[in-house]
Amino acid sequence: MPNFDRVREHRTTIMRNEAKTTANRQFADEWRKSDLRQSEVARFKSILKRHVEARNEERSDLRNVLVEYIRFSPNASELINVLILSCVSMRCAERLDIGIDVLSQAGQVIANYAYSYLHQDIKQWNKLYPESKYRPDDDFWYILLRSVGRAKCDPNVAICVISACHDEPSRGIAEGVVEALGDLGTIDAKNLLQLIQSTHPDNFIKELATDVLEDFRCVNSDMACIG
Length: 227
Hints:
The protein contains ten helices and no strands. It has a domain at about 105-225. Helices cover about 80% and strands about 0% of the residues. It is globular and about 75 Å long. It is mainly α.
């Protein structure tokens, strides 16, 4: 007669060993992915540093490398975050333009990042939680908004992100909104600019919206002449 207890014990031992093996493999895979991610982020930072220091054609080439990293990396969100935070902390006059120049070339990737980041960040904004001391970072959002406005992406996603920030009292973010609407150049963008022009409490932002709307009219006039 077979010893069923020993059979069951043997089967249990096999199952435990298989579970351990699976767990070890998962741990190894996670460690490998983490190691690759850290290596990729380090390379990205190194290229960004060279990009900032470069000039003319070399800068353009390095910008394209950074864009390719962002567009095709599984860690795109982390790379975008690294780039924006690096630009915000730089001590040079063109720091914001550097971030916009790179991220605006990332297409739908930057639009999707901005949409996701908006939903995470806006929960902490003082207008929703007055008791919080958190304030959105003007420079971070300026880079993000201008990049989305310029990117070749779904205009519905772009206007959703930009319009969600249009009544934020911070001048830096409001300026980014107005400029991004000008970059976007759609009918929805024009309508929102007209609203800002007539209702925003900051006269500087109202005047900026007026200037951007004037650019709209100039562009439309030029297009009519071409037609």
